[in-house]
Amino acid sequence: MQENLKLENQLCFRLYTASRLITQLYHPLLEPLGITYPQYLVLLVLWEQDNMPVNDIAHRLFLETNTVTPLLQRMEKMGLIKRKVGENDSRQRIVSLTEKGVEMQEKAKDIPTCMANKVMCNINETQQLIQLIPLLDNLINAIK
Question: Mean pLDDT, the chain, as a whole number?
């Protein structure tokens, strides 16, 4: 067998596995809020900057609008967001938080700390994981 085709030599497998396992760790933290991990990501974007076009949200999450739209529709039914027609372009949809969506931020404020405590066992590992952020950003930018 060729070395480059061994599973143990695949960077993509490690990234996929790490992503899947981290997403699983979020589940018990998000379940009491009644939201999924992708919905949490949308909320993170809107908590940072409310009243965003759907295209901008999709861009921030590196997703296509046809992936984000059904997600937003479910969130609107849950009362977390509202969508309205853009003022300058009637084809554009602007997404904003409802009062419930704003209140969700307070309920979610401890999630990053809880995740850090689950993932990082010691200070050295914490620093190593933080150093991964720019490396992963560079990888994402090179791929997109």
Answer: 92
